[in-house]
From TrEMBL:
Protein name as catalogued: Riboflavin synthase
Keywords, sorted A to Z: Repeat, Riboflavin biosynthesis, Transferase
Catalytic reactions on record: 2 6,7-dimethyl-8-(1-D-ribityl)lumazine + H(+) = 5-amino-6-(D-ribitylamino)uracil + riboflavin
Lumazine-binding repeats: 1-95, 96-197
Domain Lumazine-binding: 1-95, 96-197
Keyword Transferase among record annotations: yes
GO molecular function, one term: riboflavin synthase activity
Any one biological process term the GO annotation gives: riboflavin biosynthetic process
Species name: Tannerella sp. oral taxon BU063 isolate Cell 1/3
PROSITE patterns registered for this protein in UniProt: LUMAZINE_BIND (PS51177)
Pathway where this protein functions: Cofactor biosynthesis; riboflavin biosynthesis; riboflavin from 2-hydroxy-3-oxobutyl phosphate and 5-amino-6-(D-ribitylamino)uracil: step 2/2
Keyword match Transferase: yes
Listed InterPro entries: ATP_synth_asu-like_sf, Lumazine-bd, Lumazine-bd_dom, Riboflavin_synthase-like_b-brl
């Protein structure tokens, strides 16, 4: 379980294809605090630490994860938003994030707005999935590349988010341009409510 409050953007130092799996080796500031079997979100995807050295750690993404997320598009040198699992003894600063990416979206516009930025993302909308809560709502929560954000200008297949300078600089949002593929996780509470409505 995560909160969508990214700790930093880790750097990919190695990628290794192993049949249908992809091993990602990364470097970040908290490597020495990690342990084998620990969960870490990578661009919003929950992955398990399988190996660690003094300054790097390795996680593995399976084929289904690669097909559903943007992890298969990554290259050595790319920066990935990382967040360790949420502690249950503190404040929930973002929203409840499972680390289970639903689908990808494409950035269709980036515009600066007096020191902040507005990003527009478009995604493939499926009416049946939307009825199950796989959608955005105005002023609701959405996770983009692991970042907990508030939705504005919500439409059937697109939405906008506003990014403050701190988030822009700390995460890989500063590398997102028109055409960039990002990971989406829709709000789990909305999914449960939508599902419960089908029993009425």
């Amino acid at each position: 379980m995560f909160s969508g409050i990214v700790e930093e953007a880790a750097t990919i130092v190695a990628l290794e294809q192993d049949k249908g799996n992809l091993h990602l080796t990364l470097r970040c500031s908290f490597v020495n605090e990690l342990k084998i079997d620990q969960s870490v979100a990578h661009n919003g995807v929950c992955l398990t630490v399988v190996r660690r050295t003094d300054d790097t750690y390795t996680v593995t993404a399976v084929r289904e994860t690669l097909e559903r997320s943007n992890l298969g598009h990554l290259h050595v040198g790319d920066r990935v938003n990382v967040e360790r699992s949420m502690l249950m003894n503190g404040r929930l600063d973002g929203h409840i994030v499972q680390g289970h990416v639903d689908q990808t979206a494409v950035c269709t516009d980036v515009r600066e707005a007096d020191g902040s930025w507005y990003y527009t993302f478009s995604y493939t909308a499926d009416p049946e999935m939307a009825r199950q809560g796989y959608m955005t709502v105005e002023k609701g929560s959405v996770t983009v590349n692991g970042v907990s954000l508030t939705v504005c200008n919500s439409r059937a297949d697109s939405f906008e988010v506003a990014i403050i300078p701190y988030t822009h600089d700390l995460t890989n949002f500063n590398a997102i341009v028109k055409g960039t593929v990002v990971n989406l996780e829709f709000d789990i509470i909305g999914k449960y409510i939508s599902r419960l409505m089908t029993f009425k």
